[in-house]
Amino acid sequence: MIKWLFKYGAAIFLFNTILLSIAPLRMLGDIIFLVAMALFALLLVINPKLIKDIIFHKAFVFFLIINVLNFVYFILFHGIFEIEALKYILARGVQFSVICFSIYFHYEYYKLKFKDHLVFLVFAIVLLSFVLNPFIF
After folding, report:
1. Domain coverage including residue 42
2. pTM > 0.90: yes or no
3. Is the Cβ–Cβ distance between 32 and 16 less than 8 Å?
């Protein structure tokens, strides 16, 4: 189960971002986002060796740099007791970590099948929106 979540973590976040962009589904997207963030944060905490091996992998240096820049920005412009800023930096850190884990564990999926699944999801949303609101245009 843990490997499955790490494999498809980035896809879950991307598909959830599509849900968040649809106004009637925003509340569902928020719930999925919060549950996914808590679950992935827990999985990252209980797997510290994997964190070291993957986050510091040369293929993911860009994400490490982004995390460091986010942290520096947080230190310079926010206090430790600003809850919203703290939630934001933790969410960004977990998101970038999950993307790294997901690509690391399931590179072939993202290389071969991910685009097909993304196109199918967008097509299904467009089709559903035409059915639910035929006067969308």
Report:
1. 2-132
2. no
3. yes
